């Protein structure tokens, strides 16, 4: 297996764009990524296209890549469509990485694109509700009523976390305050206005204990990444960012098991020879505020129960010991589900390049992204962990 280099990145703003479609979003991200790498469409060997919900929201099925990219100059290039819940584009990244690492391609375009907004919000929420095993009973303690299946599921986990750790709902609020501050510094974030803890706690209750600000929003967006071999990268005028590890894990439905995020991170650490103590900056899957705190422990950033101290001390804020979600994360940068994983990786590349502006982690050399999606057997159905370095 040979090294894989990230040679180009490009992403749209994330937000609610009723007047845009998958083609428009995809075309913008592709154009930016190819320009950043300094290559032409004809130099791309393969395209891996991540999208989760077009079939439900827009009706476009089966040829989402081919239809979305037909006007980009990439028509005729082999294209593969990847649907893997909220981990669609990080899964696409994994496959692109394998193509380069195995010597089957020299230049691969990986992208995620999602159009979630719809004039009927029930259509958008309906897309999320299909990311579970529809024949599986809902977990004990589940209480419907928010209109969002996944926020009700996250609320179950949040209540269990509070009981287990002795934390407080205000700790979830502190995640949001941190997130909104980061989003205010990110020109492509969906939410760019800072908030206070009082405002977070006073926002409308969605699913106890989750208030509105503690829940990621529906949004649209696209993100594209150019992966190359080291030989191809030598011809380009871009910094060499190495992919040190990419690990994908699906949930185990039977028997004893660890959480998929735990297993995926362990695999990535072993593959790269890098541990959590070596990380300079992290993007993780905060589809709800409690998820961020839960993942501190899953990724080995703290001992069991240590997440409370990390968030209260500001350890994971911009300028903290190990910044987490300096992009604003899903809560503030936005969560157009098929584009989220690629968007996380692009944020980390900016930090490693030293181009993240006011969000910059000084001296960043090693970065990790954790992206998960779906629900199965009480866990996320899939988790993807990616580690990058200079």
Automatic annotation (TrEMBL):
Domain Thiolase N-terminal positions: 4-229
Pfam families: Thiolase_C_1, Thiolase_N
E.C. number(s) listed in UniProt: 2.3.1.176
InterPro entries in UniProt: Thiolase, Thiolase-like, Thiolase_C_2, Thiolase_CS, Thiolase_N
Domain Thiolase C-terminal: 261-380
PANTHER family: ACETYL-COA C-ACETYLTRANSFERASE, NON-SPECIFIC LIPID-TRANSFER PROTEIN-LIKE 2
Coiled coil: none
Protein name: propanoyl-CoA C-acyltransferase
Entry keywords, A to Z: Lipid transport, Lipid-binding, Transferase, Transport
